[in-house]
Write a structure and sequence with these properties.
mainly beta; DUF7907; 0% helix; DUF7907 domain-containing protein
Length: 108
């Protein structure tokens, strides 16, 4: 079984990466849609997912990040019940170990 963790990339910034759950006592952080903002329930702080559906760098996949604050309002549940980005360019998700190279597959 795996879970999503924040891979620290800077002050208030992180990339969502997938890591194995090694113990049954693992503390999960709940996420929820607040309108069209994908937010995380972390104590007194606001963290949210940010998608980049219009990334201008055609040489890479469009990343997803976790940032402090309320994020962007582009998240929806699609017609099949899956989390999606509300942009014509979004056609699904890919998880791969491409950027961090530390056995931490990232969400794109």
């Amino acid at each position: 079984m795996v879970t999503v963790e924040a891979y620290h990339t800077g002050a208030g910034f992180a990339d969502p990466v997938f890591v194995p759950i090694l113990t049954k006592e693992y503390q999960r952080t709940r996420s929820f849609l607040n309108g069209t903002h994908l937010q995380f329930d972390v104590a007194d702080f606001s963290f949210a997912a940010k998608g980049f559906p219009s990334d201008s760098n055609y040489a890479r996949w469009e990343p997803v990040t976790i940032e402090s604050g309320f994020g962007d309002g582009i998240w929806v549940v699609d017609g099949e019940g899956f989390l999606a980005i509300a942009q014509d360019e979004h056609e699904g998700w890919i998880v791969c170990e491409w950027y961090h190279e530390v056995n931490a597959p990232q969400l794109f």
